[in-house]
Amino acid sequence: MSFKIKGKIIINKEVEKIIKSKSSEIIYKKNIRKIEEGLNPGDMVEIYNEYNELLGIGFYESMENIGIRIMTFGEDTFDEDYIIKKFKNAKKLRNKLGFTDNFRWINSTGDSFSGLIVDKFNDLVVIESFSVGIDKILNRIADIIMNIDRDIKAVYVRNDVRNRKRFNLKIWKGFIGNPIEIKTQTIIKESSAKFYVDIEKGNKTGFYLDQKPNRIESEKYAKNCKKVLDCFSYTGGFGIHAILQGASVTFVEHDPNSVQMLKKNLALNDISSGFKIYETDFWQYIKKDDNKYDMIILDPPSFISNRNEIKIGEQKYYKMNYLALPRLNDGGILVTSSCSYFLDINRLQSIILKAADNLNIKLIRLGRVRGASVCHSIAPKVPGIEYLKCYFFIKEG
Fold first, then answer.
1. Domain-located, residue 189
2. 316 and 378 fall within a common domain
3. Are residues 154 and 57 part of one domain?
4. Which of 38, 189, 263, 372 has the smallest C-beta neighbourhood within 10 Å, fewest atoms?
5. What values do phi and psi take at 199, rounded to 5?
6. Are 141 and 127 in contact (CB under 8 A)?
7. Both 49 and 146 in a single domain?
8. What is the pLDDT of residue 39?
9. H or E element in which residue 323 lies
10. 129 vs 145: CA distance, rounded Å
11. Do 229 and 309 sit in the same domain of this protein?
């Protein structure tokens, strides 16, 4: 089934080369030359250059500075067959990499589906949409998902994320399509650990699949750690891995719902001792804490959600590391992350090292900068997609 084209938009020649090279799936308002009358946000449009050459098909968005989200390039059509092909190919890729039960199925531009995130947790699928156009076809997408994977019991939408407010999109969440079973929790396995995933009340889609390889790597190093501090713990992802390797862990998490799920995850892993939980703000806790740790994990929410927050966000990343580093033993390991799109790899490292230098602490980086799990596919031509940066440092004694 095809989607109806509602009109055409002509773009400026300045952006034409970028579109033809497929190095962007977004056309900004400033690059639009002419809009056909009668178009509404969410309408499907054909995109032309000033010489009436068809460059692609996309959704007219008109949100903030975004003008169009490109769905196909050149003369390729955007219809249900196209969506089915994209979802099948994306699933095949993840399966080939060894992901079968829990993985990111569609990663927006990484899978040539700008504005759409799809995560799979066992027999539940969770969708996030950042496009008024995609919002209109969510039920069709749900049907396609359940036809491709017959084990899926339900598709749930989490369109209650902060960025949708910025784009003036409707805030809502709930089941769509024709769910076979109504449930909002499942249990996933990650190396030696198990975790509850709450797709209704958890952050984002319910669980941070992007940090999976970094949590598993930290587990290896925790074997030689007696005391671990897990800050911004969420539901215990990093810390539980450490406890299972024999470490004593202090969890710091301010959100009551996350703390409740953290306690459930501890019980799920048969952990009844070797931990402390502080339901408090990190900034307050770290100033009062006089303990020393063999590993400190800093995995905060994004401090920079748009370009206007870069300066204040960088100050927060500096302060976070500056306050935590004195609590790290000589020879201890610092795992520190940022999930901010607007903070690049080199800038984050310079902030961390500045904090260490101002404390007369020498840090040695342990190999490469880690990123998101490989199920979070990346379009290498499109800048700004590698949002997650995770550093492993050791404090020289």
1. no
2. yes
3. no
4. 38
5. -75, -15
6. yes
7. no
8. 96
9. helix 310-324
10. 15
11. yes
Per-residue model confidence as pLDDT tens digits over 102-147: 999 999 999 999 999 999 999 999 999 999 999 999 999 999 999 9
Question: Is residue 224 domain-resident?
Answer: yes
From residue 278, alpha-carbon distances to 227, 254, 269, 293, 326 in Å are 15, 8, 19, 16, 19
Tell me how far apart the alpha carbons of residues 340 and 337 are, in angstroms, rounded to a whole number: 9
pLDDT in tens, 142-196: 999 999 999 999 999 999 988 888 888 999 999 999 999 999 999 999 999 999 9
Supply the range of the domain harboring residue 229: 202-395
Domain end point (choices 73, 95, 125): 73
Report residue 151 as tokens: 């084990």
Give the residue from 218, 221, 209 showing the smallest Cα distance to 339: 209
Alpha helices in 97-168 (DSSP H): 132-135, 138-148, 162-166
Tens digit of each residue's pLDDT (9 = 90 or more) over 288-321: 999 999 999 999 999 998 889 999 999 999 999 9
d(CA 24, CA 56): 12
Q: For residues 90 and 105, is the Cβ–Cβ distance under 8 A?
A: yes
Give helix 310-324 / helix 345-358 axis angle, nearest 10°: 40
362/346 Cα distance (integer angstroms): 18
Q: How far apart are CA 48 and CA 102, in angstroms?
A: 40
Which residue's structure tokens are 């975790």?
195
CA distances from 54 to 11, 43, 309 (A): 11, 17, 37
- Break the chain down into helix, strand, coil percent, rounded to 5: 30, 30, 35
Within a 10 A sphere around the Cβ of 165, how many other Cβ atoms? 11
When divided into structural domains, the chain yields a total of: 3
